[in-house]
Amino acid sequence: MASPISCISIFLLPLIATSLFFRVSNATFEVKADQALIDSICEQTQDVDFCKSTFNADPRTPAADRDGLGLLSIAINIDVVQATIDDTIPKIVKTLTDPVDKQRIQVCLTDYNDALVILKSAYTASSEKNYKEVIGLITDAANKIVDCDGAYRKSPPIREPPISGENDKVTKLTDITYRCYY
What we know:
Elements (H helix, E strand, L loop, with lengths): L3 H24 L7 H8 L5 H10 L8 H30 L3 H29 L3 H23 L10 H18 L1
Helix pairs in contact: 2-3, 4-5, 4-7, 5-6, 6-7
């Protein structure tokens, strides 16, 4: 007569083996961010070197798959926008004396605050795998940065925005995000 333990093992062993196979087989479909994946995304962007250096410098990159790289690019962009709001713009404001420049940098501050809210929504949408919404939100965030740039370029006196470097970085990061999902 078979013992109760051997009867249970007859049923449990196939179940355990199946669950192990299921986990192993599913893991093979998840591609982590190797250099080939990073290159395939970055070669579609306007600034390949910026894209590669951005991903290669971030310690979270190796653990990310393609969708994770999109999420990571949004997270990096949030950090850039937040630093511009918290550090860069306040330092610039302290140096300004021209009322036109003061007004323009305030426009940029508003645009950056709006972009931050939009990017946080894009991060949430990406986490929920709602990529169509991500693309729309990323476009909206990029347009806010264009509006900031336009505050300095649309009417006299035409000037280079004092945060043009940040504007470029945010725009390049939105391009990376876009490429991760297309």
